[in-house]
Amino acid sequence: MTECLTTLDGIQFNEAEEKELASFAKALGHPARVRLLKILAGRVCLGSDLVDQLGLAQSTVSEHLRILREAGLVDAKVTHPRTCFSLRPEALERIRQLLGDLYSL
Amino acid sequence: MTECLTTLDGIQFNEAEEKELASFAKALGHPARVRLLKILAGRVCLGSDLVDQLGLAQSTVSEHLRILREAGLVDAKVTHPRTCFSLRPEALERIRQLLGDLYSL
DNA sequence: ATCGTCCATCGTCAATTGACGATCAATAGG
DNA sequence: CCTATTGATCGTCAATTGACGATGGACGAT
Fold this sequence. Notes:
Two copies of one chain form a homodimer.
Chain A (H helix, E strand, L loop, with lengths): L14 H14 L2 H12 L7 H5 L3 H13 L3 E6 L2 E6 L1 H16 L1
Antiparallel strand pairs in A: 1-2
The first copy, chain A, binds a DNA duplex through helix 4.
């Protein structure tokens, strides 16, 4: 245990927030998912012309959307036979907040 | 190609920025790395008492640090036999900017 | 020159991820 | 009831990740 410039004694970790941020980040950690968010940021809702936009197989896009939904970044409203996907801006705001907590404390 | 609430015609993608954000996010996408950043946010520099803090094997911590360094989130200055790790706040600022571009455009 | 310390790297293993085609479920419309 | 459409899910495969112990390299100090 060598020395640091300042003590390490007083650090308290917020494991919940660490996991929360990591989980958001993981969901964001793929270019296709970033692109999906970008598309959904502009327009309110989408069917799956998202598939056309991404040039990936339908099942692949569906999987990316599932990840984004599970992370809370995207919302899906089913109005059969279509599903409307939308961005959840609160989630992005939350990420910014968590990032802020990270290095301005 | 079904209908969207607004057109999809005019979207132009910035693939470089998408990859940049995804790459940052990927590096952030693990609780141990978030914790490392949290530690490095508070103090200027560290040896590897980081290992003690994380409770992971030295090689594992070293690997997490490598990922953070390669992503540009962390800086390492070698002053043998120690290495000083520090946060690169510009990187976090850049992430916030990329996030902002995502949903306020 | 040797030793100890610190950190990176290697090899390995299990687990997860990303992509795909194929299939399934639910509904609207004929 | 049948069909077409949309999107979720399944199974599979290769590739990547996360973790570890072991090893190696670079100093500083003895």
